[in-house]
């Protein structure tokens, strides 16, 4: 029996399909983070005599929409494809199976997009006129719990010649990915994009040779971040008749990274396509167990938190450039990207002058972590005859829980700063103020992590010190963050124990 639901099978039955928009902004990498083994959805969804495809979940993951073919109750008969829905129960089972009211007609129907607000469904075909005028998409708005009459969406310059085509509308409603054989196509079907400006759509633009082949590319699926595209292809090698790939947008809609195959845990020796992703699970269609396609799923396992730290090697001589920073990474899901404050993008950096170097690390699932490493250098050698020895000063303040800022005009901090100012007025040519900050192990919801709280205390103090001296002493005062750490005994659900955790909630300053 030849496939009807899926676009490209051995006998190539005429059919048209699309995919649903992703609601979560997460990337993917060659490893991906870990996930469960694929599971075929139960018989309430995948019926033996029919064919199921195009899985789409409502924004709250309570309703599974999908396309069914080879069901005599379909509006256009057995070979027609209609939109069905099933309620997902709390125990993960599926029930209350029925066709979606008002969205099915005698032509092939399917959902090709869902707005981020959940109030607009984008639908395959225009719901207007005869078969040849159906080639396009329409939108249906939800009113009082019911889907309204589909209204066609005009894409200027879209000319589909043939019966193989598909669409995908991004969740923000600003981009439509189109699969069909159009101008500049390399193969049977290529991927094109139309973007929205105001209320108008642009003419379709070929998305480039990186993600198009001499075969076909179908079932596009774009993440909500608009930077990661999933699709199925039979022209890029792989496990079977068609495999699911992903690619990351580079400088624009026509510039994409080399596509990556999702691997043999998701792709089979047969036809795999129509990948959709809810943030916690992924769904796709495959005929791996027979001639007709079924819907499969995996659960995405949460990666460990991303935690970073750094160890610096100071500059060996005054004015030198031989400092380095060794970055330490724990958790997250690789590969990682690195954004250093000096513009470097490698994991470890070398050939550095004295100063502060901050880095933002982003893992494959979008987790971010920030840290800073300060490099010192020996003082400049000056004739000891003309150098006065100045006193070095210390200051330390213990914070209350979650507190992170002090006033330079009050208390001991005021005295500390006045001492430095007095030295500068009396001829001290420069002073370095070192900052050491700490947070205890008592959890903080306000800042997300104790590391973030420690960094906040250090950064606030640095800002206030620079602001205090900027008017008359900006060229004489150097402020560096030496450390911002989490310290103290392990937390034992006793946040009120001030004597236990208080000594580790501090900022300390020292001069040299």
Q: What are the segments in which pLDDT stays under 50 over at least 5 consecutive residues?
A: 1-31
- Span of the ends, CA to CA: 83 Å
Please tell me the CATH architecture of the largest domain by its name: 5 Propeller
Q: Tally of extended strands?
A: 33
Range of helix content = under 10%
**Could you please say which CATH topology of the largest domain applies here?**
Tachylectin-2, Chain A
Kindly describe this structure.
The chain is mainly beta. It has 3 domains: 39-299, Tachylectin-2, Chain A (5 Propeller); 303-377, Sandwich (Immunoglobulin-like), CATH 2.60.40; 382-512, 60s Ribosomal Protein L30, Chain: A (2-Layer Sandwich), CATH 3.30.1330. The chain has 3 helices and 33 strands. The chain starts with 38 loop residues before the first strand and ends with a strand. Residues 1-31 have low confidence and may be disordered.
In short:
Helix content is 8%, strand content 36%.
Task: Show the helix and strand layout.
Layout (H helix, E strand, L loop, with lengths): L38 E2 L10 E7 L5 E7 L11 E8 L5 E6 L11 E4 L5 E5 L12 E7 L2 E2 L3 E3 L12 E4 L5 E6 L9 E8 L2 E2 L3 E2 L10 E6 L5 E6 L9 E10 L2 E2 L3 E2 L10 E6 L3 E6 L7 E6 L7 E7 L9 E8 L6 E4 L8 E4 L2 E8 L5 E8 L18 E5 L12 H15 L5 E9 L10 H20 L7 E10 L11 H4 L4 E6 L1
Parallel strand pairs: 31-32
Antiparallel strand pairs: 1-23, 2-3, 3-4, 4-5, 6-7, 7-8, 8-9, 8-10, 11-12, 12-13, 13-14, 13-15, 16-17, 17-18, 18-19, 18-20, 21-22, 22-23, 24-25, 25-27, 26-28, 28-29, 30-33, 31-33
């Amino acid at each position: 029996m030849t496939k009807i639901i899926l676009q490209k099978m051995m006998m190539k039955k005429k059919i048209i399909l699309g995919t649903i928009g992703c609601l979560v902004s997460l990337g993917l990498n060659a490893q991906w983070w870990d996930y469960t083994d694929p599971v075929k959805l139960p018989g309430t969804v995948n019926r033996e005599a029919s064919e199921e495809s195009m899985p789409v979940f409502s924004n709250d993951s309570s309703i599974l929409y999908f396309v069914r073919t080879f069901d005599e109750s379909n509006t256009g008969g057995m070979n027609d494809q209609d939109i069905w829905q099933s309620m997902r129960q709390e125990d993960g089972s599926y029930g209350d199976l029925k066709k979606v009211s008002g969205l099915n007609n005698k032509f092939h129907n399917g959902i090709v997009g869902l707005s981020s607000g959940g109030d607009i469904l984008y639908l395959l075909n225009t719901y207007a006129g005869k078969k040849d005028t159906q080639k396009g998409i329409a939108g249906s708005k939800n009113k009082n719990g019911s889907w309204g009459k589909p209204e066609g969406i005009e894409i200027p310059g879209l000319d589909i010649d043939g019966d193989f085509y598909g669409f995908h509308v991004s969740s923000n409603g600003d981009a439509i990915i189109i699969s069909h054989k159009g101008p500049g196509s390399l193969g049977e079907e290529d991927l094109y994009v139309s973007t929205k400006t105001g209320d108008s759509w642009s003419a379709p633009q070929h998305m480039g040779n990186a993600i198009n082949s001499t075969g076909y590319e179908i079932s596009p699926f774009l993440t909500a971040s608009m930077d990661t595209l999933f699709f199925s292809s039979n022209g890029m090698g792989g496990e079977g008749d068609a495999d699911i790939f992903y690619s990351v947008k580079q400088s624009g809609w026509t510039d994409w990274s080399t596509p990556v195959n999702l691997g043999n845990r998701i792709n089979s020796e047969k036809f795999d396509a129509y990948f959709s992703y809810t943030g916690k699970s992924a769904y796709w269609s495959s005929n791996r167990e027979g001639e007709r396609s079924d819907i499969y799923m995996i659960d995405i396992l949460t990666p460990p938190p991303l935690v970073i730290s750094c160890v610096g090697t100071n500059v060996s001589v005054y004015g030198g450039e031989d400092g380095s920073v060794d970055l330490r990474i724990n958790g997250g899901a690789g590969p990682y990207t690195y954004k250093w404050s000096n513009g470097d993008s490698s994991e470890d950096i070398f050939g550095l002058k004295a100063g502060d170097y901050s880095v933002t690390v982003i893992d494959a699932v979008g987790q971010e972590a920030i840290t800073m490493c300060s490099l010192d250098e020996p003082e400049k050698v000056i004739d000891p005859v003309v150098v006065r020895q100045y006193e070095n000063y210390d200051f330390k303040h213990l914070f209350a829980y979650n507190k992170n800022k002090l006033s330079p005009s009050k208390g001991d901090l005021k005295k500390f700063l006045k001492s430095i100012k007095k030295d500068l007025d009396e001829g001290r040519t420069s002073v370095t103020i070192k900052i050491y900050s700490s947070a205890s192990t008592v959890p903080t919801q306000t800042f997300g992590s104790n590391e973030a709280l420690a960094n906040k205390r250090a950064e606030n103090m640095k800002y206030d010190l620079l602001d205090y001296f900027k008017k008359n002493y900006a060229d004489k005062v150097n402020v560096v963050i030496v450390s911002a750490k989490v310290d103290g005994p392990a937390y034992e659900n006793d946040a009120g124990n001030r004597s236990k955790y208080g000594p580790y909630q501090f900022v300390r300053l020292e001069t040299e």
